[in-house]
UniProtKB/TrEMBL annotation:
Protein name: YceI family protein
Residue ranges of coiled coil: none
Lipid/polyisoprenoid-binding YceI-like domain mapped to chain residues: 14-173
Domain of life (superkingdom): Bacteria
PANTHER family: PROTEIN YCEI
One Pfam match: YceI
SUPFAM superfamilies, sorted: YceI-like
């Protein structure tokens, strides 16, 4: 809560924050030998309406695969989930939409995408749909595996794409901070 001094009067101003949990995030790797797809419903995040700051996080070990062996290799060999348990994005929305007002807002956010313990400066596009009390966030973006120092053994190099498609969809509800 912030305190403002207006015409000699002290006014309590509450910052509006949109928060969510159980967001959907998925990735898809198209490769010559086998396509790989995984989903998680455990992404959480928040957007502060007045400053446009945002933060999102997903536990890496919550991604579910069609094949249990793929999931095991993903967590143990590639992502090292015990050592790097979360993937995160923190940053700020570049545009200045009034997220407390109903509307559809194409946005870009600039910040740090951290995967496998390696932060990368990124600008990610998305869409925010507001009804005034909740936001629906959607985004599609690409992640280059090598940018996050994820090593793919030569034996399975043709099984995993160098660039992975990521999609997210999340509802964030308005709260008063």
């Amino acid at each position: 809560m912030m305190e403002l001094l207006v015409f000699g009067l002290s006014i309590q101003a509450q910052a509006q924050v949109f928060m969510g949990a159980n967001g959907n995030i998925s990735f898809y790797s198209k490769a010559p030998l086998e396509d790989i797809e995984a989903h998680s419903r455990e992404m959480s995040g928040a957007i502060r309406a007045n400053t446009r700051e945002l933060a999102f996080s997903v536990p890496v070990n919550t991604f579910q695969f069609r094949k249990s062996l793929m999931q095991q290799h993903f967590n143990e060999r590639y992502m090292e989930s015990d050592k790097y348990p979360k993937a995160t994005f923190t940053g700020k929305i570049n545009e200045t939409p009034d997220l407390t007002q109903p509307g559809t807002y194409p946005v870009t956010a600039t910040g740090k995408l951290t995967i496998h313990g390696v932060p990368q400066d990124r600008t990610i596009q998305g869409t925010l749909v507001s009804d005034g009390n909740k936001l629906q966030l959607t985004s599609d973006f690409k992640v280059k595996v090598a940018d996050h120092k994820i090593t793919i053994p030569r034996v399975v190099f043709h099984n995993i794409a160098e660039v992975v498609d990521v999609k997210l969809d999340m509802t964030l509800n308005r709260t008063e901070e």
